[in-house]
């Protein structure tokens, strides 16, 4: 499926220093997971005696337990004891918080701070659950030293809604909350007024940017339901894997378009490594996808790719604790791929003739599964998935000289990579594949333009008969584009005439029909009273009034009789009709800016999401394989 139609910076650290820091974090997370696993298996509760005394201090038994587990893991006893003490303290804090919550109703929220925060990135915050999301954001900003308007809070893998209470949003005691900054810069460490002012201005721009994205996507999605000239007015369209537009039920079309639009915007931020801004877009995409039926999500790969992108974003933000939800998302992605591509990619092979390009998605899936297993303490499973990812990396490697050869023939680097992966690295076959695909897409685009032109002509034909654009669109949709059938539907359902694109209050502002038009209907044999009422309903359109009276035996249907009475009592003019004209052009300019900003990030190539140099993946696979191997070597040394 496809859509037609200032940056965040992490504080600079030395390359080797950053790698060492990340390695320590990853290894500590692995050790915590293994020890937690052992404690569960042995049914040991560290917050109770003999591991914690009556004063909630550490008991002597913890040292003996640490020695037992260090021998089992064949690693440093002091390191094991240190991590177990952290686990114990956290369990004691949780127990204390539980008792406090039961007696006072004050909940504890575990807050995970951005990577740039020097102090412990995981902190506890107490709050009542009847406060609003805005009040919680203010409290977090005040407690941890953020600018309130320039942070976003993610709880339960969803953006915190500022206008709703925590309880209404399903926030509970001991929930995890992640803080995202809209702007992070190297100057954050300086506490000068100038830097703070610059930071605020940049964050304001980022917030406006996010709001423009939302408005731009809504406008583009709405245009798909309107009558627009496809050659002159940009809008969103939905196409299948071959590039042809597909019909979506109107009830789901807008939600699906918004979901795909937010996903593309989020992917654009991911490409620029602006993970803190990408995540809110991806979570919004997930929210709108959930409004679509399950059957639709199982037939396209968009939803599966989105799950990968969200987990990837959590990982790149360094929020390892958020990987707790990764297992569910990765299983969902794997199941969606299976249903969409078929067992052993049979459906994909039938549609495209190859599956080389889609292997990129499976490489990332295996890599993320390896990372998740490593941080869950499952070293063997992690090694298995990382090796699968490594094997795919070798298969998908592209010789730069081959890319250069295809670019010399006039193809883009993206086309070259995709073509080579589709053709197992054969340059000649890739050139033929790319050329054939270009010709196929050109033909499809011509056919789609012709379909849209015919649809526009049919809508204009019905508009010329007096029907509103919205009524014409709905009738044509029900008639699968057949003009004659659409006209029959409109005649059988004259109330559809009231489906109008303008504001409801403006629909009724009609003057009394002229005597000349009433006489025309009376001459045709209709009663004068019925003729006048029909002309009121259809705003003086003699043709529609006559057709409706004929179809209903010379009378108006009861529901249209009521409409006639309403219109007769409504003033014909309004002194405010011309008000606000001066601001119309400004609003239009703002909408154009919002639309253009969205369109800039929507890729032209329908398989852009399959194109990757795999440079980041190669580095991360090597890193995590080294972590697993270090565990093995440390065990051998001990």
Automatic annotation (TrEMBL):
SMART domains: UBA. The keyword tRNA processing does not apply. GO terms for biological process: proteolysis involved in protein catabolic process; regulation of ubiquitin-dependent protein catabolic process. SUPFAM superfamilies: TPR-like, UBA-like, Ubiquitin-like. Residues 556-611 are annotated as: Disordered. InterPro entries: NUB1, NUB1_ubiquitin-like_dom, SASH1/NUB1_homeodomain, TPR-like_helical_dom_sf, UBA, UBA-like_sf, Ubiquitin-like_domsf. The keyword Coiled coil applies. Its main location: nucleus. Residues 586-611 have a biased composition (Acidic residues). Residues 397-437, 447-493, 512-552 form the UBA domain. It is found in: Nucleus. Residues 563-585 have a biased composition (Low complexity). GO terms for cellular component: nucleus. Keywords: Coiled coil, Nucleus, Repeat. This is NEDD8 ultimate buster 1.
